[in-house]
């Protein structure tokens, strides 16, 4: 379980990016994080994966408080958190298999990783994950030979290769066409259900968020202004999060999927 308790982040210039944010996510739950640009979504993700130190509050994962840790302790914690990036963050000159195996870098020695000599169990797991995300036949291809959707699938497999306790997913569909976006969201939901993994998906597409997540957290100006089910995300709530707009078209889009 992930627990975020009264987390605030104030940058040196005095800008408050997060304002007393609290929530918990049990194992297996997929949460969509929505809100306008500048609402604090990316800062929250960065606080959870410990790239940013909160100004106040605490974050715990599996009962371990991960705020205020030393650099050595953080290296261990980050192995437990799988990140899936908007721009894929693959090493394009390396093969698909090598990119997936890079998910084990936090577990193997420097020389093993440098020589790309991963334990047999890690390689077997990587093949199984590539099969799960539908890329077994592309294992030997360079990453730069893949489509956007295929690259995102490699990113998913790499994150799962870590054996994470939590997935943090940053705009996984931002660069994808509508059909591929739905395929990626469906795959993420299925995998989280299969592995009983909690996940936070930072996503701008409200239609996709409503369709593929079971819970939505809405941020505005660094504060949580909504935390509920997709069915509870009414026009009134959307206006509270984003401001005035004709949200009936959003409802029609959702119904047509």
TrEMBL record:
Q: Give start and end of each ABC transporter domain.
A: 2-246
A GO MF annotation of the entry reads: ABC-type phosphonate transporter activity
Q: What is its EC number?
A: 3.6.3.27
Stored PROSITE patterns: ABC_TRANSPORTER_1 (PS00211), ABC_TRANSPORTER_2 (PS50893)
The record's Gene Ontology cellular component field reads:
plasma membrane
Q: Where in the cell is it found?
A: Cell inner membrane
Topology class, membrane: Peripheral membrane protein
Q: Which UniProt keywords apply?
A: ATP-binding, Cell membrane, Hydrolase, Membrane, Nucleotide-binding, Translocase, Transport
Question: From what superkingdom does this record's organism come?
Answer: Bacteria
Task: Report the InterPro entries cross-referenced here.
Answer: AAA+_ATPase, ABC_transporter-like_ATP-bd, ABC_transporter-like_CS, ABC_transpr_PhnC, MetN_ABC_transporter-like, P-loop_NTPase
Cross-referenced PANTHER family = AMINO ACID IMPORT ATP-BINDING PROTEIN, PHOSPHONATES IMPORT ATP-BINDING PROTEIN PHNC
Q: Sorted alphabetically, which NCBIfam families does this protein's record hold?
A: ABC_phnC (TIGR02315)
What protein name applies here?
A: Phosphate-import ATP-binding protein PhnC
Gene that this sequence comes from: phnC
